[in-house]
Amino acid sequence: MDVQEFREFGKAAVDYIADYFETIRDRPVLSSVKPGYLGELLPKEAPQTGESWQDVLQDVDRIIMPGLTHWQSPRFHAYYPTANSFPSVIGEMLSAGFGCVGLSWIASPAYTELEVVMMNWLGKLLNLPEEFLNCSEGPGGGIIQGSASEVTFIGLLAAKEKKVKDLMEANPALKETDIRGKLVAYSSDQSNSSVEKAGLLGSVPMKLLPANESGQLTAETLLEAIRQDKEQGLIPCYLVTSLGTTPTCAFDDLLELGPLCNREGIWLHVDAAYAGTAFVCPEYRYLMKGVELADSFNFNPHKWMLVNFDCSAMWVKNAKYLVEAFNVQRIYLKDNHNGLAPEYRHWQISLGRRFRALKLWFVLKIYGVEGIQKHVRGQIRLAKQFECLVLQDGRFEVCTSSMGLVTFRLKGDNDLTERLLEKLDQRKRIFVIAGHFGGKLVIRFAICSRLTNGDDVDLSWAEIKSQADGIVPMADLREEMKVKRSIGSFELTDTAREKIRCEKSK
Ligand SMILES: *Cc1c(COP(=O)(O)O)cnc(C)c1O
Question: Which cofactors, by name (predicted)?
Fold first, then answer.
């Protein structure tokens, strides 16, 4: 393919993406293909001679598009958002076009330097304590990693090495192997699956302690676990807290857990993968009080901050611990810029580095702080709107509501909610997933796509309601009317009533 063809292919691809976004609202969110569908549509071998780009684009439309789940559809409400924006898409494209690998400063000075500046911008945007920032005097700093899972694992490795080193320094008679075999780590049973995985990968038992009825890990529970483990000769070294748990977006209390970790010499990691973006808005920062007690902090701009996957922001209070855990020198990696910029390869698992800072820069520059705040506040408002709709229907109960996530269920047996989920899955018009809260089956409804608006939320709710009609008998519908009368606005139309209730809760 020559440059001229690249120009044509590239422009056609951008048009294809633009068309996709213009039609995405009308597509069923879930795909209808059956497992194995794609193998039947493609030849068994790679083509002997090359084909035209027009053929390729046609194949995308014929073979790939039907097998997509439309994550950016305004009626995709599963998991948490996976961010996407036009500035970010272009950032990805340019980064691919430059084709560099930033394995050291000299391997592409702009790669490292833009990342340093972006992590400062981002840290200030969240109002993180100064000591986490690259621009602070101390040993703290920020880096872009691929995922929150990776960050939790990296934190664990650093915490482990730090603990081994600290104990051996304090007591030279100790054997390294004895220490390593006794390390334990903690998190709550509400933390993301990747936290448990980090323990498996890092060969440190990750104890998932029971959260309280609000989904938070309490200091009391942690203290008791530490006490029992120490009694057995074990060595606590790492705690993963969540600001915005995956099941219900609950927030652990750092002011409560932090002092305990600091006192016990336990590395405190804060996983704010989804909800961290909300700290761009000052009104939500009370939820991260105590963050200054943490050793590492992470959130995913690729979740809620309009930057395409992958872009996971990690800050550490002392980067020395990462470098000590990961530094390997080779002659071909020698670089003579005298430590004026971080050598990020020592802060991460792989050697090569993508230019992720570019798309982050595009998003921050084109949206501006105000644009991102507006996005966050708008999505939280839509979640509130949904909550209001559920509250007005006597057949349902809202279980939790936090940030852009509402969990709810049909009152009564889990079986009813399970049937509702099955029906919704079969119809494919909206995508929601199941969760558990307080031992009950719930439906997680998250505002995900940046395209979702108030009408989409109404439509998603109408879809849920219409499917519930087939499950909950009419007698219960009369119950619902009673509820509506008791709120005294039955003479209003549905829409007007919804509007009033939502206004109230804003
Ligand atoms: C989504 C999520 C993760 C996993 O994020 P990845 O970047 O996909 O690894 C971890 N923790 C929490 C709290 C999450 O919401």
Answer: pyridoxal 5'-phosphate
